[in-house]
Amino acid sequence: MHHDLQVFDDSESLAKGAADYVLERFQAMTSGSSSFSFAVSGGKSPWLMLAELTKESLDWDRTVIYQVDERVAPLGDDLRNLTHLQSSLASTPVQIEAMEVNDSDLDAAADRYAELLPTRFNLIHLGIGPDGHCASLIPRDPVLQVTDRLVALSGLYQGTRRMTLTYPALARSDQLLWLVSGADKQEALAKLLDGDTSIPAGNVEAGASLIMADRAALTQ
Q1: For residue range 190-200, what is the model confidence (pLDDT) as tens digits?
Q2: Is residue 135 pLDDT above 70, yes or no?
Q3: Which of 22, 108, 140, 145 has its CA 20 to 30 A from that of 94?
């Protein structure tokens, strides 16, 4: 799919630009009574973005945060994306729909989470790993082939299993916002911009896509 691209000098200006964009998307909603459905991935960039966003006049009471993915780790563990989401948004009354990764039946928990998802997301944030993964759609993992479920489990990756939105769930997004920071992302970002489907990120489809990257992430 086509990706628009915006480039920022560093991770701090990237975070501010992303926060401004999220606020713009919120304000573009046509109905004053509808909620803003925003799914967030893990990583340093989104936590910086959310920290900036708490300074803005976003109506948090009308915002619902969903998780794009989550590690199977204990509640409160620093590995958990939820830990950082809650910390970043502690000053707000936002509703966070958390993935139940401590359930004894993870497949059933994934199915329950799928039932919570909106028919359409206003916005989904994604990052990209140096290996081209996004969400927890991991190279060579069977989760890449899941097309009949909105939420599924990956195999072991970097020491943990993951619960993740699948390609069909990501396709429910009206708008994707990719945040890419750091020189270790150069090769993966170049492939994403080229539409290279050899990496998991290259197979994501949605209504529209914007990549925000710092200069370090761009090939020279």
Answers
A1: 999 999 999 99
A2: yes
A3: 108
